[in-house]
Design goal:
mainly beta, 3-stranded antiparallel β-sheet
Length: about 180
């Protein structure tokens, strides 16, 4: 957990590689920050071969979750659990549709999600990016800068900036040499 309830606000700054920093200000304190590595969504591709009395080897595919397997009822294909319509026609003379070679291919595109949570675990804010590297982040409580940063007046909101002390020391050392 970050910040105390008496701090009043928490400013979370995070940055994905090669992106500008982003900020979220919470008026609820304390807060927690959670970074998770996950797929873009839980959807994948269902693919299969359909046939009937006149047509053989007709490919069909659709996006769905691993719980939305195809179900055939006569000439209608729907999804299990959600009963979403995938295909339907009224050509009863062609007989019932049959499925074979049913394959579910999960989404393999991964990224990182940053979640800001209140003390009860409720999500206050979240951001996701397809990335191989997690975002870096820091939290400033109240009108203070996080540890390792110093506060200077600045013309942009909220009227101050937090500067990394290590960068200041590095620049100072470069100027002195």
């Amino acid at each position: 957990m970050y910040c105390k309830s008496e701090d009043g606000t928490a400013v979370i700054t995070w940055q994905y590689p090669e992106d500008p920093p982003k900020n979220f200000t919470s008026n609820i304190t304390p807060i927690d920050v959670v970074i998770s590595h996950e797929s873009v969504d839980n959807l994948g591709i269902w693919s299969m071969i359909t046939s009937d009395d006149f047509t053989a080897n007709y490919p069909v595919s659709y996006r769905g979750t691993d719980l939305e397997s195809p179900i055939v009822n006569g000439r209608t294909i729907t999804t299990a659990n959600t009963n979403r319509l995938i295909s339907s026609d009224s050509n009863m003379s062609a007989g019932n549709v049959q499925l074979r070679n049913i394959v579910f291919t999960p989404n393999t595109q991964l990224g990182y999600r940053i979640k800001i949570l209140d003390p009860t675990g409720k999500i206050l804010f979240q951001d996701f990016k397809v990335s191989t590297v997690p975002p870096t982040y820091f939290v400033a409580c109240g009108n203070a800068c996080p540890n390792g940063y110093c506060k200077i007046d600045c013309e942009v909101y909220p009227g101050y900036c937090c500067i990394n002390e290590a960068e200041i020391k590095s620049l100072s050392n470069q100027l002195n040499s």
